[in-house]
C-alpha cells in the first residue's frame, strides 16, 4: 500500500458524514511522504519545532505550534507521543511514530476526539508495523 493510500483512505476517511480538513504523513526530517491536497505547505523550521517539542515536551507551549504559517495553541497531549493544537473551532493532532509524524487537521463538525481517534489509530498501526 502506498503512503498516499494511507492518507486518502485512512486519514481522510468518512467520520459520521464528514472528514478531516487535511492530513499528511511526514518524515522526521520534514520530507513529505504523502498528503491530502488541502494540507498546508510547511514553512522552514515548523517541523523542527514540532520534533523539538516531542523531545522536550512543553517547548512549543509559550510560542504556539505553527503549521503552514497558521498558529495553533498547544493543548494537552501525550509527552513524546502526541501533540494537540487548537485554533478557533478547529485544531490539529500530531502523532509521532518511529520514522514519521502523522498529521490531522480538523474543523467543525469534526470534533477534537474524532480527529485524535483517526490520527492516533493510524500512528499506532504504523508503530506496530515498525514504522
Concise overview:
The protein is α+β, with helices and mostly antiparallel strands. Helices cover 27% and strands 32% of the residues.
Give a quick set of tags describing it:
131 residues; alpha+beta; 7-stranded antiparallel sheet; 7 strands; 27% helix; globular
Explain what the structure shows.
There is one protein chain. The protein has 131 residues and is α+β, with helices and mostly antiparallel strands. Helices cover 27% and strands 32% of the residues. It is built from three helices and seven strands. The chain has a seven-stranded antiparallel β-sheet, sandwiched between helices. The longest helix has 17 residues, at 112-128. The mean pLDDT is 96.
**Level of helix content?**
25-40%
Structural class comes to alpha+beta
Query: Quick one: biggest sheet?
Result: 7 strands, antiparallel
> Number of helix segments?
3
Q: What do the pLDDT scores average to?
A: 96
Low-confidence stretches: none
How are strands sequenced across the largest beta sheet? 2-1-7-6-5-4-3
Give the topology string: H per helix, E per strand.
Answer: HEEHEEEEEH
- Shape descriptor reads globular
**Alpha-carbon Rg, integer:** 13 Å
Ends apart, CA distance between termini: 14 Å
What share of residues are in beta strands? Answer: 25-35%
* Structure summary, number of beta strands: 7
Topology:
Layout: H1 3-11, E1 22-27, E2 32-35, H2 46-55, E3 65-67, E4 70-78, E5 82-87, E6 90-96, E7 100-106, H3 112-128
Antiparallel strand pairs: 1-2, 1-7, 3-4, 4-5, 5-6, 6-7
Amino acid at each position: 500500500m502506498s503512503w498516499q493510500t494511507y492518507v486518502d483512505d485512512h486519514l481522510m476517511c468518512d467520520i459520521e458524514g464528514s472528514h478531516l480538513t487535511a492530513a499528511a504523513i511526514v518524515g522526521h526530517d520534514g520530507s513529505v511522504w504523502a498528503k491530502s491536497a488541502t494540507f498546508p505547505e510547511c514553512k522552514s523550521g515548523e517541523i523542527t519545532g514540532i520534533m523539538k517539542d516531542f523531545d522536550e515536551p512543553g517547548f512549543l507551549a509559550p510560542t504556539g505550534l505553527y503549521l503552514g504559517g497558521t498558529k495553533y495553541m498547544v493543548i494537552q497531549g501525550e509527552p513524546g507521543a502526541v501533540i494537540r493544537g487548537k485554533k478557533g473551532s478547529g485544531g490539529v493532532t500530531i502523532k509521532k511514530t518511529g520514522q514519521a509524524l502523522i498529521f490531522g487537521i480538523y474543523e467543525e463538525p469534526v470534533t477534537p476526539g474524532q480527529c485524535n481517534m483517526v490520527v492516533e489509530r493510524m500512528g499506532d498501526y504504523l508503530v506496530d508495523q515498525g514504522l
